[in-house]
Each structure stands twice: as structure tokens, then as C-alpha cells.
Backbone:
């Protein structure tokens, strides 16, 4: 079996009606919520990223359910899943696959690595060596694997959900800025509320709820949803608004590094998915607003002065800066277009 | 118009409107020297503000630009109806055909009052109407130039009109302070325009998505200052040129049917006209009256009190707007001891047409007159500011004064009266003081001298003739004429009256001459048992009145064969207090000096409103005006809502209209919503009690979805079909009902009377919004 250019393009015929997308998305979110209670925002962001064909970075301390979220989402979506536990000694070929000599056929056969799946869960990506990180990130960007001169396309949809512990933790290799930029969004799980935590204790006493999780969406339906997202309309004022937000991050005094053009592009893509998930075939400025922190925050680098003067009790510095920029940028309230 | 006309925001338009209003309000100040009191200015400012700000409101409602001036004209019509239409209008705002008839009368009345009144004029309703109409039309013109044509520099054209008018009438023209103010206002307007243009141009570039920023056009202050000074200068020059070339007022018959200005004509003696009227072969009917008890008074038209050597004339006193004829002043000099009695007389004027009303002297009140009539403080003569006597029917209450000979004889004559009544030119023909001296010698008191003069003139030596003076070349009432008359001893009433008045002054008795009608000829016709009396042009007459301290002005009759001699002035009159002629004074108190020097009069004077002179009307009109002003925001809001519903029905950005109306309603009710995206607004109000009802909440969300689709949806979205628009309107009504139901009574009242949305529209801060995601 050589290159497998399967289902690379989402078939236009399979594009779903926008109302269906909304209904399915709601079911997926509800389904995942049965496993991870009280984390609707993170779940929504994760699904948004899947629908927008991006990659998701889940960043938080160990044990808050990062992997659980990724697994639950994958299972709900009925897509093929693979999971890579990143460790310092993991090699790039452990991710992408390796060519093995087949004695019978007397030729090399490519053994596909775990990256060949619709949803790839990369646990604790910051524990891998930079070289291995780079291999995964190349797959994310190119959506293909090249080994021994042969290019293998990855099945679509292809989404990497990477989890990462905060950089202060021991034995980690923090992702460099350029590589963080490859992720469409980053979400934090946060600790559950006491009530949710209590509920969790009782539900998981005997077995993992993940075992009972049902599949909600067929993979073909998922492709249909993604196709519908691509057809979501973005009006000129909303595009201008996204550009304006990106420009504002570049000019902000508290930021050393602003949002890249890729960030702007992904912001709009994510906003389209967000709109579709709400059963809307056009993007609102509110979609952009809702996604500004997940999409922009992990790409920005604050100045050291801003870090020094930040009050840690008020949440992550960079999130606060993004929220401030969003609040300060005039939103297109839409003084009526004339048709 | 500019091809690249920038679209101005409501706030920018409002700025231009406010500057236009300030300009118009200052420009009409130029009329200040011409019109008494200041109430007219407030009226004009009110009308101008009404028109201009109505225009601004209409533009804020996105009425098409070309349509606004037309609607402004409608607003002007409604304002005029409100102010002047009275009971002829529907709901005080909608004119009826009768209202237009009334306007026509007011307008012609205004023409008359402009011709009749001297400066400063009293603001009779007709004049107020003309001012309001003129200012309203000029305001519309101003608005067209500033807002429609976007050529504020030409605002000078309508503004120059009020600046020009004083130049015709007052020699000094417009005062410098007003010119400076107007120039400053003009500069302000230009300044506002420059700012508006600059920001509008910047906005324009943004809209086009072109990243260039045009440098603001700098308008040097010097050039605008030059323009303003130019306006002022041209105004002065044109005004003085026009004033110089205006033909002088032509003289005509005293009581002719033509111009009413005759009596104002300086240098022309009313005597001449009177003589011409007396010499008419056929008498012309003047008026008729009904008086009980055989009461036959003389009717005074006007009183001549100034003698300048060759002419008797009326002292030039402005009309006092407070002197309305429903309560006339007390006769000068009359004191309580003198017996008086009141007699009502009904007068019907048919043919004679003059601005002076035939009224017996003295009278206490006149009822039933049409138009504005004012009495003179000293002579109690009555004249009109805006109409004339034609067709008038009125009831005058005459005060009969019955002094006794003792009272007259005992009276001093000159104390307490204006020295004007004693003034004589220095160069007097020798015969006058000689005659006066011979008559005064041998008589004890001033009264005796007066009786002697009357007796002298009535003696057989003198003959009545209307022709002799004309043939002898001594017609009129001047010194030369009196000298000739004393030698020729032939003349008519004018000569006898002026001669007696001059002789009396020579003898130290204050005198004046009244012109009017004698009592006329009774007819056989009786109305309600009262004999009707006809008065015609042959009854025109002039007679002297002499002043006696404590009694006032007392008429005499020196003309042989005319009128009737008062009993008290017959030689050897006894104790009998009877008097035949009307004389004297009405009130029981001594007259209180000269009311025309009252400091309360004048420009800063009585804050009477200009609409009417009747007290209760004044209050009603004032209240109506205040109510109209107060209801402007409410009406604007109602109009705005109606316009938006119309947009929904017509499919003119219907979703936007519905949403704007929803947001405005919420703002009116004080439901604090941030400005922002529809979604943010919707989520900020979703928690309100009004939206707990799922139906209401759903309706509100439907409105939100519609506006979102309209604003951010695909470009090929067309207006929703009529049913959907209908549903939109229903949703809007349901949401509004729910919000109103939910709000407190005070909020509802505030929302109706002072809709906050009108203000917040202007002061909305961009970029501040409520939280709330999708």
C-alpha cells in the first residue's frame, strides 16, 4: 500500500445543513459533558477547533481531566483515535511511523505511526524532546507524513489535541512560540467546582464513565459538519474587526509579541465553526469575541514589565490582556448595511 | 452640491442646526430698535428653533434630504397655527380653511400695521404673525443652504434680510453690537461646518476602505472674518441706499380712502385736508351712532398739541402697547370734586376709513373693536396699530364732565401740565399778542380770559367761510394764517380753533386743538327707542381745548355757527353746573403724572407674551407654548416609532428598524443596556423580569436574530418577505408591551415625555459594551 490520499477534500455534496450542524454540535457537547461536568467552555472550544480543522492545546496542571476531555470528544465524534504519551525518550518515528523491511516481499513497508488517526491525543507534549515535538508539529501543519521519500497524506479530519503541563513543572521542554502558533486554540481546564468534584466521586466509584460514552456522530457526518463550517459567511465588518484585534495586539504596550496573520486567519476560521455550532450560517462579532482568548492568548508574549506588575490573583496575565484589548476595540455594531 | 457629498451623522447635523439657530436668533435681534418689548424676539426664536430643530429631527429619522424643507414648511404652518390659529384650528395644530382666512387677515393687518405704526412698534398679533412667518421662512431658507446645499457661507443671504430692514426705517440702521454678534455667529457656523466636513471626510475614506487620510482643509480665520465683515458692510450700504431712494410718503386727504399715513406726514397740516373735506359739495357719510338721553357729544379723532409757528401737529409719541381700550386712562388733570357721569354710545362706522377712532373726550372704555387699538396717555385719542375704522362697530363709554363755573374760575391753569402746551415760537406777528393782551385785560381769572377770547371770536365781526381763506391765501393754522385771519375775520373752524388756541397760550392758558366730528344730524330712524344720529364729512370740525387745573382739558367753541357752545363758557355763565359739551374727566382720583415716562415701559419692559393682549389668553397661550415645547421630545419619539414601523412594513432595512426601536424602547424605560452588538444587548436584557415569559423572550431573540442576519449575514440576503416583516412588527409590539408592563409608572411616564433614547443616540460611546458571548 503506497500513498493513501483518502478523502482529502471534504465532499461538497456531503455538506450539512447549518441547523443540523448546530443540533449535532449540541449533542456532542452534551455527551462530553456527561463525562466532564462543568467544563462546557473547554468542551465547546475543543469541538470548535475540531470543526475548524485546527489543533487544540489543553494546558493545565495534571489531573484535571485534559486527557479525559480529549478522549471523550474523540469517542463522541466516532473518529479514529490514537494516543501518544510523550516522554523525553520518544523518537519522531514513534509518532509518524517507521519503514520496516518485509522479508516476504523483500521491500520496505511503512508502518504507520499513531499520528495516522482523525484525532490524535498527544499527552504532555512538553515532556517530549524538541525534535519529537517538531515532528508532530510538522504533521499538524502539513497534514502529511514524509518517510523515505514517500509522502503519506493523513486522513481528514485530522486534529491533534495536545495536553501540556504548565511550564514551571519539572522535566518539561516548553513549546517555542513558533510552535505554539500552530495550535488554533488553547484552553485551560481549571479545577472543577466542589459540587462537580463531589459528583465525580460518586460516578467514578466503580468504573470509568468513558466506557459508557456513546458515539454521537459518524465520521462522515463530522466531515459534513466541517464542510458546512467552510461555507459559513463572514461579512466585511467582522473581518475588519478580526484584523483590528490582531493589529491591537501588535501595538499593545504590554505585549512583546502580537498575533500573527495566521492567528487572524485561524480566529476567523474558529469563529466560523463557532457560528455553525450555534446553527448560524454567518459570523457575528460576538463569535470573534468569544474565541479571542482561546485563539489569541497562547500566541502572545507579554513584556517583562507587564509580567512583573501583574497581579497573579486576577487570573493569567495574557488572558487579561486579551480581554482588555477586546473590550477596547470598537465592535462593529453594524450600523445597517444598505442592501 | 458636492459630487462626493459626505454623509453626516445626526450629531454633526445637529451641530450645524444649532449653529444656524444661533445665527438666526442673533440676526433677528437687529430688529430690536423697531419693535417694542422683547417678547417678539422669543416668539421668533421659538419659531426658528421649531423649524430648524424639526429639520434636524427629521434628518435624524433619515427622511430624505430634499423632503426635509417641505416638511419644515409644514412644521412652520403648524407652529403658526398653534400660535395664531386659535379656535379655527383642529387640535391647535391642524389648520382649517378658516385658519388660512385668519392668516390672510393677519397678513394684511401686518401690512397695515407696518404702514401705520411708528417706531418702536407695538407687537400686535398681526405684526407678531408677520415676524413669525418671515423668520420661519428665512429659517427654512437657511436650513436649505446649510444642510441641503451644504453651503453655509451662503447663510449670509437669509441673515442679511433682518439686518437690512432697520436701515429702511431707523436712520442709524443696525447697532454695532448686533452686527458684531451676527458676525460672530456666522463665524461659529462656518467653524462648525469646517469641523464637520473634516471629520465627515475622514469617515468617508474609512468607509471606502481606502487607507489614505486626507489632510484637513484648513480654513483660515481671516477669510471667514472677511466674509462676515463683508456681510455686515454690504448690509449697511444697501440699507442706506434703499432708505435714501425710498419715495417719501405722499400726502392725501385727511380721511380719504387711500393711504392711512396722512396723519403721520410731517410738515403737512391736517387742517388743509380738513378744509378740503369741508368744501366737498356733497357730504360723505362718516359714521352713525346711537346715544340715549339725547346725548350729542363731539367725537375726537386726534389732538394737535404742538405749534411750531406755521403748523399744528401731533407730538410724536410711540404707541404704548399696554394702553388697550378695554380700560382707558383717567383724563389728565381731572379731580374728584368735579361731577362726572358715564354714558354709553354705540357707534357704527361704515364709510370713513382712518386709523384714528372717533371717540368722545374723555371716554373710559371701548368694547367690540376689531384689531388692536391703543389710547394715547395724554389726549385719550384712540388709534390702531394694524387696522382702521372701516366697518367697526363698538360701544364707547363716554365720561361726561360737569364742572361748575366756580371750579373753573378758581382753577390755576398751568401748574402740573407739560410746558409743551404753552409753547409759542418766538417770532409772533404783532397782532396776536396785542389781541391777547386786550382780551386778557379786564378779566380776572384764566377762565374769564378764555371766555373772553371765545366771545371775541364768536362776535359778529367774524364770519364763517370755508372759501375765503383759500381765496385769501391764508388757509391752514400757522402764524401767518392767524395773523391774516385776525385781519380778514373770515374763516372756518380751523382758523377759529387755532386762533383761540394761540391766543390762550399767549395769555398763559395751556391749549390744544382737537380734530373730529361735531355731534351730527339726528335721523328719524329709531333703534330700540333710541334715535340714530348720522355724522358725515361736513360735520368734520376742529375746536380748541384749554387746560384748567383740577378740571383738565375743557373744550371751547369759538367757531360761529358750528357745534354748540358749552354752558360753562357762555359769557356770564352762572352757578349752573350744566354743561352741554362733553368735557372732562372720568376718574375720581387725580391723574398720576405722565404714564408714558413709566420706567417699566420700553424694550426690557413687561414680559407680556406677544400672542395676545388679553390676560387669560396670554396665560393659555403661554401654557400652550410651554406644553408644545415640552411635548417636542415625546412627539419626536412617537414620530420616530411610527417611521420605524413604516420601515418594517415597507421592507426598508426592516430588521434594523425593529432592533433600533427595541433598543430605544429599552433605553427610554431606563433598562440599562450597553451599546454593542445585538447579541450583547440581548443577553444584557435577557435577565430582566420582562423577558421571563418565554414568548417575550423568544420574540426578542427573533428580533435579535433578524438584525444579526441583516447586518452580518450573507450579502445576498434580501429583505424578509411581507409575512416575516409582519411577524417582526408583531414581535416588536409584544416585546414593547412586555417591557412597558414590567416598568414602573414613573419610568413609563419618563419614557413617554422625555425619551432617553433621543439623547443617548447622540452621546453613545463606541467600544464599550456588555459582556456575553454568543
Residues:
Amino acid at each position: 500500500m503506497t500513498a493513501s490520499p483518502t478523502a482529502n477534500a471534504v465532499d461538497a455534496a456531503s455538506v450539512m445543513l447549518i441547523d443540523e450542524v448546530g443540533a449535532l454540535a449540541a449533542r456532542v457537547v452534551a455527551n462530553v459533558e456527561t463525562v466532564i461536568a462543568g467544563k462546557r467552555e473547554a468542551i465547546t472550544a475543543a469541538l470548535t477547533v475540531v470543526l475548524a480543522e485546527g489543533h487544540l492545546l489543553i494546558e493545565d496542571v495534571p489531573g484535571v481531566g485534559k486527557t479525559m476531555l480529549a478522549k471523550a470528544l474523540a469517542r463522541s465524534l466516532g473518529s479514529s483515535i490514537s494516543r501518544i504519551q510523550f516522554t523525553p525518550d520518544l523518537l519522531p518515528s514513534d509518532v509518524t511511523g517507521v519503514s520496516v523491511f518485509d522479508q516476504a516481499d523483500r521491500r520496505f513497508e511503512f508502518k504507520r505511526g499513531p499520528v495516522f488517526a482523525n484525532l490524535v491525543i498527544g499527552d504532555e507534549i512538553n515532556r517530549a524532546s524538541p525534535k519529537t515535538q517538531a515532528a508532530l508539529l510538522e504533521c499538524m501543519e502539513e497534514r502529511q507524513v514524509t518517510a523515505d521519500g514517500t509522502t503519506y497524506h493523513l486522513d481528514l479530519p485530522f486534529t491533534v489535541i495536545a495536553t501540556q503541563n504548565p511550564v514551571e513543572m519539572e522535566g518539561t521542554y516548553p513549546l517555542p512560540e513558533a510552535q505554539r502558533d500552530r495550535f488554533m486554540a488553547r484552553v485551560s481546564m481549571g479545577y472543577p467546582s466542589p459540587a462537580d468534584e463531589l459528583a465525580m466521586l460518586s460516578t467514578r466509584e466503580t468504573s470509568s464513565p468513558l466506557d459508557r460514552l456513546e458515539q454521537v456522530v459518524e465520521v462522515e457526518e463530522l466531515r459534513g459538519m466541517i464542510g458546512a463550517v467552510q461555507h459559513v459567511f463572514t461579512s466585511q465588518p467582522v473581518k475588519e474587526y478580526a484584523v483590528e484585534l490582531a493589529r491591537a495586539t501588535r501595538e499593545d504596550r504590554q505585549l512583546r509579541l502580537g498575533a500573527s496573520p495566521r492567528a487572524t486567519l485561524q480566529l476567523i476560521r474558529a469563529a466560523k465553526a463557532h457560528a455553525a455550532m450555534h446553527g448560524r450560517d454567518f459570523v457575528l462579532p460576538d463569535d470573534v469575541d468569544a474565541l479571542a482568548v482561546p485563539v489569541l492568548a497562547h500566541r502572545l508574549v507579554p513584556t517583562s514589565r507587564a509580567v512583573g506588575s501583574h497581579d497573579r490573583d486576577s487570573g493569567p496575565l495574557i488572558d487579561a490582556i486579551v480581554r482588555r484589548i477586546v473590550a477596547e476595540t470598537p465592535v462593529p455594531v453594524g450600523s445597517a448595511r444598505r442592501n | 452640491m458636492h459630487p462626493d457629498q459626505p454623509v453626516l451623522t445626526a450629531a454633526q447635523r445637529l451641530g450645524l442646526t444649532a449653529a444656524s439657530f444661533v445665527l438666526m436668533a442673533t440676526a433677528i435681534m437687529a430688529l430690536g430698535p423697531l419693535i417694542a418689548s422683547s417678547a417678539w424676539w422669543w416668539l421668533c426664536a421659538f419659531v426658528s428653533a421649531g423649524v430648524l430643530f424639526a429639520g434636524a429631527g427629521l434628518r435624524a429619522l433619515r427622511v430624505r434630504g430634499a423632503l426635509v424643507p417641505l416638511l419644515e414648511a409644514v412644521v412652520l404652518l403648524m407652529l403658526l397655527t398653534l400660535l395664531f390659529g386659535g379656535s379655527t384650528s383642529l387640535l391647535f395644530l391642524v389648520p382649517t380653511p378658516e385658519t388660512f382666512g385668519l392668516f390672510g387677515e393677519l397678513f394684511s393687518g401686518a401690512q397695515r400695521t407696518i404702514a401705520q405704526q411708528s417706531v418702536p412698534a407695538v407687537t400686535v398679533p398681526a405684526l407678531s404673525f408677520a415676524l413669525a412667518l418671515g423668520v420661519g421662512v428665512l429659517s427654512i431658507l437657511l436650513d436649505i443652504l446649510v444642510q441641503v446645499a451644504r453651503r453655509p457661507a451662503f447663510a449670509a443671504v437669509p441673515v442679511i434680510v433682518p439686518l437690512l430692514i432697520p436701515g429702511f426705517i431707523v436712520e442709524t440702521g443696525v447697532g454695532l453690537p448686533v452686527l458684531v454678534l451676527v458676525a460672530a455667529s456666522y463665524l461659529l457656523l462656518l467653524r462648525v461646518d469646517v469641523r464637520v466636513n473634516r471629520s465627515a471626510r475622514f469617515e468617508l475614506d474609512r468607509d471606502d476602505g481606502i487607507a489614505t487620510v486626507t489632510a484637513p482643509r484648513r480654513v483660515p480665520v481671516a477669510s471667514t472674518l472677511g466674509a462676515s465683515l463683508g456681510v455686515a458692510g454690504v448690509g449697511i450700504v444697501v440699507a442706506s441706499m434703499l432708505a435714501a431712494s425710498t419715495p417719501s410718503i405722499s400726502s392725501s386727504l385727511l380721511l380719504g380712502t387711500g393711504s392711512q399715513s396722512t396723519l403721520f406726514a410731517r410738515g403737512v397740516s391736517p387742517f388743509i385736508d380738513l378744509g378740503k373735506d369741508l368744501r366737498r359739495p356733497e357730504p360723505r357719510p362718516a359714521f352713525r351712532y346711537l346715544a340715549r338721553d339725547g346725548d350729542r357729544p363731539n367725537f375726537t379723532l386726534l389732538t394737535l398739541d404742538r405749534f411750531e409757528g406755521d403748523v399744528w401737529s401731533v407730538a410724536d409719541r410711540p404707541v404704548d402697547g399696554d394702553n388697550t381700550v378695554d380700560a382707558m386712562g383717567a383724563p389728565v388733570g381731572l379731580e374728584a370734586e368735579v361731577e362726572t357721569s358715564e354714558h354709553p354710545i354705540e357707534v357704527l362706522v361704515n364709510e370713513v376709513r382712518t386709523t384714528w377712532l372717533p371717540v368722545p373726550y374723555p371716554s373710559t372704555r371701548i368694547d367690540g373693536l376689531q384689531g388692536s387699538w391703543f389710547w394715547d396717555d395724554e389726549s385719550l385719542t384712540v388709534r390702531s396699530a394694524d387696522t382702521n375704522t372701516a366697518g367697526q362697530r363698538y360701544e364707547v363709554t363716554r365720561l361726561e364732565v360737569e364742572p361748575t363755573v366756580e371750579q373753573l374760575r378758581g382753577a390755576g391753569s398751568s401748574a402740573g401740565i407739560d410746558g409743551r402746551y404753552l409753547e409759542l415760537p418766538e417770532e409772533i406777528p404783532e397782532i396776536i399778542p396785542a389781541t391777547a393782551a386786550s382780551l386778557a385785560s379786564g378779566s380776572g381769572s384764566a377762565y374769564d380770559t378764555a371766555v373772553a377770547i371765545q366771545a371775541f371770536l364768536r362776535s359778529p365781526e367774524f364770519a364763517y367761510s370755508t372759501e375765503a381763506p383759500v381765496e385769501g391765501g391764508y388757509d391752514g393754522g400757522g402764524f401767518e394764517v392767524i395773523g391774516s385771519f385776525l385781519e380778514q375775520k373770515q374763516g372756518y373752524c380751523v382758523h377759529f380753533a387755532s386762533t383761540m388756541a394761540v391766543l390762550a397760550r399767549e395769555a398763559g392758558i395751556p391749549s390744544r386743538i382737537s380734530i373730529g366730528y361735531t355731534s351730527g344730524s339726528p335721523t328719524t330712524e329709531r333703534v330700540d327707542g333710541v334715535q340714530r344720529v348720522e355724522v358725515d364729512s361736513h360735520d368734520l370740525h376742529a375746536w380748541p381745548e384749554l387746560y384748567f387745573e383740577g378740571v383738565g382739558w375743557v373744550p371751547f367753541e369759538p367757531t360761529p355757527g358750528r357745534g354748540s357752545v358749552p354752558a360753562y363758557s357762555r359769557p356770564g355763565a352762572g352757578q349752573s353746573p350744566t354743561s352741554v359739551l362733553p368735557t372732562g374727566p372720568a376718574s375720581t382720583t387725580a391723574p398720576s403724572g405722565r404714564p408714558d415716562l413709566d420706567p417699566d415701559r420700553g424694550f426690557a419692559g413687561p414680559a407680556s407674551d406677544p400672542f395676545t393682549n388679553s390676560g387669560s389668553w396670554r396665560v393659555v397661550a403661554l401654557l400652550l407654548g410651554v406644553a408644545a415645547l415640552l411635548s417636542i421630545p415625546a412627539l419626536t419619539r412617537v414620530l420616530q416609532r411610527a417611521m420605524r414601523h413604516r420601515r418594517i412594513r415597507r421592507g426598508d432595512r426592516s430588521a434594523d428598524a425593529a432592533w433600533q426601536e427595541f433598543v430605544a424602547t429599552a433605553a427610554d424605560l431606563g433598562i440599562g443596556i450597553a451599546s454593542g452588538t445585538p447579541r450583547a444587548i440581548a443577553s444584557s436584557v435577557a435577565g430582566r423580569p420582562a423577558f421571563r415569559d418565554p414568548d417575550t423572550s423568544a420574540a426578542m431573540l427573533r428580533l435579535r436574530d433578524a438584525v444579526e442576519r441583516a447586518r452580518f449575514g450573507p450579502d445576498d440576503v434580501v429583505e424578509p418577505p411581507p409575512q416575516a416583516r409582519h411577524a417582526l412588527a408583531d414581535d416588536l409590539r409584544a416585546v414593547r408591551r412586555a417591557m412597558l408592563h414590567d416598568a414602573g409608572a414613573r419610568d413609563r411616564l419618563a419614557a413617554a415625555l422625555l425619551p432617553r433614547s433621543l439623547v443617548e443616540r447622540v452621546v453613545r460611546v463606541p467600544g464599550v459594551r456588555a459582556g456575553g458571548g454568543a
Notes: Residues 202-223, 242-269, 574-614, 762-774 of chain B have pLDDT under 50 and may be disordered. Chain B has 22 helices and 17 strands.
